[in-house]
Amino acid sequence: MQDRLKRFYKRKYSSIPYAPTLPDRDIDFHKLYVEQTLVQKDFREKDSDKGIKVATYKEMFTQNEKRVRNVVIVGEAGSGKSSFLQNIVLQWSNDCETDHEKTELYSDKQVLKDFELLFYIPLRDSFNRCNYFEMICDQILRTIYNNNDFKNACELVEELLDTCTASCLVLVDGLDEWKHQDGPCKCSSSDRGRTPMFHQNNCATVLITSRPWRLSQTPIKESEVDVYLEMESLENQKQLGENLVRILNGKTETKTFSQFEEYLKNKVMDSFLMKTPMIFLQIVCLWYDGYGLSNSITIIYASILDMLIGRRPGYCVWASQPIESAHCIPLLRQFGNISTNWNYFEAISKLAFDISFPMNGHSLVVFDCKEMKVNNDLKNFGVNCGILTENRSKYVSYQSSHMSFVHKSWQGFMSAIYLCKEENLCDLEKRLENNIENMIEVFRFVCAMNTQIG
Q1: What is the chain's mean pLDDT, rounded?
Q2: Which of 210, 270, 273, 329 has the greatest number of C-beta atoms within 10 Å?
Q3: Phi, psi of 173 (to 5 degrees)
């Protein structure tokens, strides 16, 4: 099983998109990735500025020389949580050291090697599942075993998790992207919807990542957190930028990262843009493609979307004719690819608003296409542009298609477009109040596009 898992992970996770909103443009993971800094805090005082930087896996997975059971990593959207777990998966899967693995941070890879089995579960692929064991069987074991051996493999994993006869690490990515199933399950009423569940005899170490708002919305019990870590904003922009420019250049020496730094000298770029890895990569791509970089966060986002549509002309110039500019938000009229496809943008902006500010309940990150009435035309536009990502269930028991915005901040940007076109905000007041954490994210975009609404 260990050998099968390693082969599976190396095949599936050895690459990473270098233009994050274009997943088909990928490169060897370690040619782009740079290590992120984690800070350990007391879970009871997680809002405090006090914390200790973590530089080793030992600090992450052990306390008092004993292996811990529950680790939580919290970070904002695009901060690099998924890439951090992808790096762990690849380090565990690779049996030999290579040059690109030499790093000052987390160099004690033997701590990872001491786990005999590792199971990596992206929760956005576990729509409507609430049990970790079922996720492992459906997402991983069903892929690496044939039908004849699948049942035996599941029974083996269940036995190992319950009897502690093997050391197991379970990486669970994206609590904020998970929704509890609607039907009956084994969860207690008090635990339902907080986190997926394991059998009470579980012996595995579980590392789960989340965005901060999810923990404030549905808190994790204090007894379920042994180590609490927060992901710092990107500190090593230079190395990440140099890696990306080298990839974009290919075999040429067309541009250098020093030219990018020189270009930025007269710019006042928001620290959020420069210290969030996913957005930083997009900004470098914008500059490389010859787009002017504005000091406005909203203009930056609009430029990225305009660039994405322009890269997919075969898919995205679908409007039968360019619409009249009067229908478009004035600030966005300068972006020809956006204004030409404004009908699609309006539809996607309503979708973003509906999942960010639902009539009842909390906001969603992952949504079901049928429930949200997303037709194929709109879905294809969003996916081909890189605004939306689509995942199909891996389960035999039912088939579904669920989607998400490629980045939570795109969801906020598109929600702001909807608000700026909406004339009667009073009708939306309760929806905004019920999801105030999303309103904070949307507010600056609204102010830039329509100061009166702001």
Answers
A1: 83
A2: 210
A3: -105, 120
